[in-house]
Design goal:
Helix 1 packs across helix 3. 62% of the residues lie in helices and 0% in strands. The protein has 4 helices and no strands. The longest helix has 15 residues. It is mostly helical and 63 residues long. The chain is elongated and about 50 Å long. The chain has one domain.
């Protein structure tokens, strides 16, 4: 896949699936756009999270 095809696909995902405007997609930081797309995939059951964590795993109980 070339860079042009990748950006065309990301633009399509942003416009059609994430309901963003074209300006929002182009001006959005690249990492944020990829994060939004991954959240969309997980929400719709297309992808599964790589790791499931609970708040007790992140913050110890004695704090």
């Amino acid at each position: 896949m070339t860079d042009a095809e990748l950006f065309t696909r990301l633009l399509y995902y942003g416009l059609a699936h994430l309901n963003l405007s074209q300006d929002e997609v182009w001006l959005m930081p690249f990492g944020l756009l990829l994060d939004l797309w991954e959240c969309h995939r997980q929400y719709n059951g297309i992808a599964k999270p790589k790791r499931v964590a609970c708040i007790d795993d992140v913050i110890p109980c004695n704090i």
